[in-house]
Please model this.
Amino acid sequence: MGVRQKKIAVHDLEIGMFVSDLDRPWHQTPFPIQGFHIRSQDDMRSLVSHCKWVVIDVAEKRENQESGKSASPLFGHRTRKETVGREVIQLPPLHIREPVKYSTSSTLKKELKLSKMVLEDAEAALQRVFAAVNRRETPDLREMAGVTRNMVASVARNPDALLWLSRTRQHDDFIYRHAMNAAVWALVCGRELGLNEGLLNHLGLGCLLSQVGKTELPKAMLENEGRLESDDFARYRGYVNRGVAMLEGSGVSRAVVSVVQGHRERHNGSGFPEGIRGDRIPLLAKVAGLAEYFETLIGPRDTFEPMTPAKAVNLLYDMRNIEFQEDLIETFIQAVGIYPTGTLVQLNDGQRGIVVSHSPARRLWPRVMVMTDQEQQPLKSARVIDLASFNAEQEGGSTLIIAECLPHGTSGLNPAHYDVTGTESRWNLSRLVGG
Model:
């Protein structure tokens, strides 16, 4: 069915409508994403205070009302239609005791040099932990804890560096990559929440260890974990308790164990292993769960095409107070942006590139490393364009914006061929000769 758009006054809005456009630029409003369902009176009040009219997606609203008639898959990627009509749970806003206000104290160029070594150390330490577990030995987590502290320090100084490396780094083993990337997403979110470095250490280590119970699962099951039948899923979901059991006697803190234990629980009680809900889920486990789910949506797989990060952000926003707490989702989006680091994009003039970082004040105008010209031919030397700064200097219709997000692995877009700090091509002759 096609989508029919209808322009209406904000005072005529109803809960359940899908707002697809506003009477003003999205970046001039507090709404963290472009396009969202109205789920509460607070949403409507916010729209009334900022707009006189909006555009709603009529077909999407009608489909959503009918979607409750069909069963959702037991386990898998949720679509926007599948989230509407499910139980919504309202909780008081998250309260962080004595939140820390972090400032960026290191440049991307400087921090990339430091965080590259941190990431390599983290991967090596994690492999040693998994190897010990496979030998039925109690893992020595002292090295892993030290590496986590270095990861936390890097994210505290500059959240973009470690995120860039984790998003663009290639790794053959799914479990390692998934654990590493989920940990970085969680740390970036925790930094935005204002968690102190002690809590960030617990969060990061918990995320890194959260996948340890998967080491006993068949590779085929891991590759298709979003499409499992009920019998396989029953075996799969046991990985959480297996992971907790594997960490017994390792000396890991209770806070870290709670992250491993609770990262698959969900706000509305639809998670596992205990099916707890709402404020019974520890805060760090909530952050870890959101980060791990986001990585599940966007992580490259051999068996199916992952979502673009921008689509995953939109899906998360639609899960507010359903599978994840509303203000936690909004904090996550504020931390990673509408177009998270590592998102492949095409600009409205035809150039293609990858998002390097974003500005919370200009959520739709991130910094993009352009790798092709307007005809999608690879550039010898990439260049970074700060869309917010560029557009501030433009007049009339010459604004440069993101036209669309591109699938993972789009031909001709390999950031590994370029140095993001200097944006020169790694195919540069002088570098090949050793100059």
Notes: Residues 108-134 form the longest helix (27 residues). Strands lie at 5-9, 18-22, 36-37, 53-57, 344-347, 352-359, 362-372, 378-386, 402-405.
